[in-house]
Write a structure and sequence with these properties.
Length: 393
Amino acid sequence: MDNITGRMTYSAAMRALPAILLVFLMTTSATGCKQEASSTSSPSAPEVAVVEVVQKDVPIYSEWVGTTEGLVNAKIRAQVSGYLMKRPYTEGSFVKKGELLFELDPSKFKVALDQAQGDLAKAQALLLKTKLDVERDTPLARQGAISRKELDDSVQSYSAAKGSVAAAQAGVEQAKLNLSWTRITAPIDGVIGIAKAQIGDLIDANSELTSMSTLDPLRVYFPISEQEYLGAAEKLQQAYNTPDEDKKARLILILSDGSTYPHQGKFFLADRQVDVKTGTIRVAALFPNPGNLLRPGQYARIRAVTRTHQGALLVPQRAVSELQGNYQVVVVKADNMAEIRPVQVGERIGSLWIISRGLQPGERVVVEGLQKLKAGMAVTPTPYSGSQTQEQR
């Protein structure tokens, strides 16, 4: 009986096996689908840094490259020849007008002066003699004691003697000038350069010995285009006619190391003509130069406000991406969905960019996290920190 029961149990188990396997497979499949569905569910929205589009009036700057130059520049030249005996000034120092710079050997010029004075004395003596002859012969000619010709000869000699005296006096003045030119003095107040001659050198007339410049204030020359000049001609003329004390310092000077010069400058003058080769006209500005920090020949970049953009829309430059000359930004809409929007850009203002078309004030644009975004993607916006305050200033 037990055998029969065991065979029946085994047979029932074998018949139930397919049903058990089917239930197991269905359960496994359902579990796998749940896991797959869980693993393929959409990830969390990426976090991006956003900034609002700012609208305000901004000044538009223009820049020009120029060079510094002394307000007054003087080349120191010898006017007579001679051996250089003294050079009392210190090279590179500030000297005052009239201060002795060079002295040539005066010996031959003193001799020339003595000779000229001797020639003058002889001419004066001759003048005195001829004058006395005229005074003596005049009454004698009236009395008929001498002929009229003799009186005429005396008058002519007297006139010639006066001419000799004038020539001798001119010779004395020239000799004095030549002697004075052996002492070469500063024609202006300013900083003097390195000497081109050393003591003992034979100096020729018109030889350049050194140069000097008045450095406070300092001129800065920079070229502007003919179009820029035409656009600003009226303002330039008005500034030119304004007294210097009434002019406002509005020009910014940027030095070769990128630093901004602490003193602002004023418009000084525009050149008389446009350079036909470059189509530019040279303009000069004046900058205070206390302590003579700036020197002629330095690189200078001039910045000035040329106009004001009313109601400009501003975004950080890093929010704008460029592709083949086209510009675009990623806008985060009210439902936190990303929208890639083409824009038209204008001038750059520091680290900001003016957007001419494509944005509205108050819209949010992505500044960080642009690379991981696609159109229509949900995002988690966070306020942009970093240098946002500085960029919008």
